[in-house]
Design brief:
The complex is a heterodimer of chains A (534) and B (291). By secondary structure, chain A is α+β, with helices and mostly antiparallel strands. Chain A contains 16 helices and 19 strands. Helix content of chain A is 31%, strand content 20%. Chain B has twelve helices and no strands. Classes of the chains: A alpha+beta (534), B mainly alpha (291).
Chain lengths: 534, 291
């Protein structure tokens, strides 16, 4: 029963399986999987012994936290077993509800946490900026002055090749220091009824529903699309929302300067009809379309400026704030070192918004699609304080309004008659479900009570892959684990590297996820031509 | 003069306990169930010990594996042998069932006996407290405590289940003690100057043993069910440890793979059926009216 005796057995089984030509392991694996894995495990054991824990003796019992979902559970159990059998380390696992999980992770109340990130703009920096010293995401306590400097320099580097080189060097440093343990790059798995038209796979997995139509066999008679977005948004205040569910909801309720093109998720004009960029890339001028709030007030450039200042106020504890740090003085304001008026945004007139940036950011148009850049209605916010987002009070400018929000169940959306392009909305009504159990969601789908899923139980993925209603593709996201450096001995880089080396990522993607995910040993997804980690 | 002696001997051989046992062993179903339970129980002890598979060890080449020569009950999503996990899970389910019931029986007997023996105002206050606890949804309280403790140790599971399962037994014991208190033999003992502890030990306990044993055998299955319900909700036992509840919960996630749910489900069903039958048998055996 000892942990040492079981390891050779695993290797023997693996070796035996490799010997058989028809075994599933031999297909699709160009190099023999047993060997590199064994040497990685040896290296991990060596590092751990060097750090003072030969065969895991004396290593404290840490806890892995993750939010409730069947594949998180399986991955955590697999990692637990890999660490036990290869390193002799015992860890416990703990699953929590989404909101509890977010809270624990953001406050740094964890030992080892499952995490995942979807980069908000197609650039390595979207991921790398998460681990700078002042990033709210970086709750594990890892900091490196050299790393921060490289990220800072890359922001000011105008030559794209040199910028990528700097970012690639920064990522190398990050991975060598191993405050995180990358596992794989996400793939979007959608099951979608064939009558849903106008939805396309894109790397951001962003699907604005305005132009979606329901036609053909089986289309619901009431014209209501039902989509399971799973988790409930953490907050519905655009300045506080910090999760993907929040973005999926808020992009339909509010309208930012730009929004995602349903085909490729590139930014297209929304509240702004066009924008100009100064030759040095530092000044962006947005020209707004005439539009009204849901209470009839006109949407003005000052609404945007005021909302952005509000979002940057040191009192607003949003993890997404940093996505506005590119705007001049935003970082200083957020830290309380400058007054709100210093923010680099001003309304020249009712329809013209001028934004000054800290550094050139070609991806700024992608950033203004995010909820932290959405406008909010000043009078409503000032009158009701943090209760302004309640359904009977909310004033918004987006294409849909929330007619009903039932906790843990569903949100019902209907067209907002005051939306600037209300007549052009093709989809008039839709429902977001919050079913977090994939099995339940799948049976709702199969029985027609739900029309669209974006997650499939891992043990069924291989059966779904051939179906005509299955849509999949790589997305701009990475699944990883982070270590809390405040917990000894996780502050020792050798320990972190040993833990990371002992995890067999190929096994996790091939045996657990089974959906074509790519194992990854880096934080950034392989989606940027010309970018290399070195 | 011989007749009274004979009578005494006859009464001794027909003490309520022995008579109950005799009646119990005449009940065919209950006896079969005891044997079956002993088989399942000893299997949970022996099987994990003799098998060559470790319950934590993954065979990555045979995940979601059907039962075969190597894995008699198949493998789970992580390629772990299900047979060793079913029997090991049985250990935990049995341990939780017996220990949580023991905790609640000890608390319940002590509380109920104290309440009845003290009588008067103390009795009233103690019983109103039980009434208040009765009014609270038992499972909800357990779930709240489980979430608050943030601990997933098995110990917590049976402590919590035990701490909230003693209400019924305390009422049963109180009622029994109340009626016993007025019985002639207790009065006689009192008149002879026997102290309260001795009365409780010699006269009360043997007489309430019957109902307590019956209740205990019926409480164990409900605690086991409560544990599997908690596991269903993701509370309770955590990986890589397992219990029947956890295994069944995983099984219902993959109903296409019949072996996931069949083996732990069958084990739990057999155990619950046996415990309930034994409880029924004991109740019939101890029932004085049935003579």
């Amino acid at each position: 029963m000892s942990s040492r005796s079981s390891l050779p057995l695993v290797l023997v089984l693996a070796a035996a399986a490799c010997g058989k030509p028809a075994s599933p392991a031999a297909q699709g694996a160009p190099e023999s999987p047993a060997r590199p894995q064994a040497s990685a495990a040896d290296e991990a054991r060596r590092l751990l012994a060097e750090a003072g824990y030969p065969d895991g003796k004396g290593f404290p019992e840490f806890e892995i936290i993750y939010n409730k979902a069947e594949w998180h559970t399986k991955i955590a159990a697999a990692i637990q077993e890999m660490w036990r059998s290869k390193l002799g380390i015992k860890v416990v696992t703990r699953n929590t509800e989404w909101k509890v999980y977010l809270d624990l992770v953001q406050k740094g109340r964890f030992d080892i946490a499952r995490r995942g990130y979807f980069g908000e703009y197609i650039d390595p920096e979207a991921f790398l900026s998460l681990f700078t010293a002042d990033s709210g995401y970086n709750s594990g306590g890892w900091t490196s002055a050299g790393y921060d400097r490289m990220i800072f320099q890359s922001d000011r580097e105008l030559d794209p090749a040199k910028r990528y080189a700097l970012l690639g060097k920064a990522e190398r440093l990050l991975l060598d220091e191993a405050p995180l343990m990358p596992l794989y790059n996400y793939i979007a798995h959608n099951l979608m009824k064939p009558f849903i038209k106008g939805v396309y796979h894109n790397v951001r997995e962003m699907h604005p529903l305005q132009n979606v139509t329901l036609e053909g066999e089986g289309a619901p008679a009431d014209g209501t699309l039902i989509f399971n977005i799973s988790e409930e948004p953490h907050s519905l205040d655009p300045a506080l929302a910090d999760d993907i569910a929040g973005l999926k909801v808020l992009m339909h309720v509010f309208e930012g300067l730009a929004n995602y093109d349903p085909r490729d998720a590139s930014p297209v004009p929304a509240a702004a009809e066009r924008w100009e960029i100064s030759p040095d890339g530092l000044r962006w001028t947005f020209h707004l379309r005439p539009a009204r709030w849901s209470n009839g007030d006109p949407v003005t450039a000052e609404d945007f400026a005021w909302s952005w200042r509000r979002a940057m106020s040191p009192k607003m504890p949003s993890a997404y704030k940093e996505r506005m740090y590119v705007v001049k003085n935003a970082r200083a304001i957020s830290r309380g070192e400058a007054s709100l008026d210093a923010l680099g945004v001003r309304a020249v007139d009712d329809r013209t918004l001028v934004v000054d940036l800290e550094h050139p950011a070609p991806y700024f148009a992608q950033l203004v699609c995010l909820m932290v850049y959405y406008p909010v209605h000043r009078a409503t916010v000032e009158r009701h304080g943090d209760k302004w987002i309640e359904p009977d009070r909310i004033v918004h400018n987006g294409p849909y309004r929330i007619v009903e929000a039932r906790r843990g169940d569903r949100m019902i959306f209907e067209a907002n008659p005051r939306y600037r392009a209300a007549d052009a909305l093709k989809l008039k009504r839709f429902i977001f479900l919050h079913v977090t159990d994939e099995r339940t969601a799948l049976s709702l789908y199969e029985t027609g009570q739900c029309h669209w899923l974006f997650r499939i139980p891992t043990d069924l993925v291989d059966q779904m892959r051939g179906r005509p209603d299955y849509m999949a593709g790589p997305i701009h996201g990475t699944y990883f684990y982070t270590f809390n450096l405040k917990k000894k001995p996780l502050d020792d880089v050798r320990v972190r590297r040993a833990l990371s080396l002992a995890v067999d990522r190929e096994t996790i993607v091939k045996r657990i996820l089974r959906g074509g995910e790519e194992a990854s040993d880096r934080l950034t997804p392989p989606l940027y031509p010309g970018y290399e980690v070195k | 003069m011989a007749a009274p002696l004979e009578l005494v001997a006859d009464v001794q051989s027909r003490s309520p306990g022995r008579m109950a046992m005799r009646r119990f062993f005449k009940n065919r179903r209950a006896v079969i169930c005891i044997i079956l339970l002993a088989v399942v129980g000893s299997a949970t002890l022996v099987v994990p010990w003799v098998t060559r598979h470790d319950y934590r060890e993954s065979d990555w080449e045979y995940t979601y594996g059907k039962p075969n020569g190597t894995y008699w009950m198949g493998t789970d999503a992580l390629g772990r042998d299900l047979m060793v996990r079913v029997f090991l899970g049985g250990r935990i389910s049995f341990a939780i069932g017996f220990l949580a019931t023991a905790v609640s029986v000890i608390i319940g007997v002590a509380y109920g006996a104290t309440s009845a023996f003290a009588g008067g105002r103390i009795d009233a206050v103690m019983m109103r407290f039980v009434d208040i606890l009765y009014g609270m949804p038992y499972m909800l309280v357990v779930i709240i405590i489980m979430s608050l403790t943030e601990s997933k140790s098995v110990l917590i599971v049976f402590l919590v289940l035990g701490l909230f399962g003693w209400l019924t037994i305390s009422r049963i014991v109180r009622g029994q003690v109340l009626s016993l208190r007025e019985r002639e033999f207790v009065e006689a003992a009192k008149a002879l100057g026997v102290g309260a502890p001795a009365i409780i030990w010699r006269h009360m306990i043997p007489n309430i043993l019957g109902p307590v044993i019956v209740y205990t055998t019926l409480a164990i299955p409900s605690v086991m069910l409560a544990e599997s319900f908690l596991s269903f909700l993701g509370l309770g036992v955590s990986e890589p440890e397992t219990s029947w509840g956890v295994l069944i919960s995983e099984g219902q996630q993959s109903l296409e793979r019949w072996w996931f749910v069949t083996f732990p489900g069958a084990a739990l069903a057999i155990t619950l059926f046996c415990l309930n039958s034994i409880g029924d048998g004991l109740r019939d055996a101890f029932d004085v009216q049935q003579k």
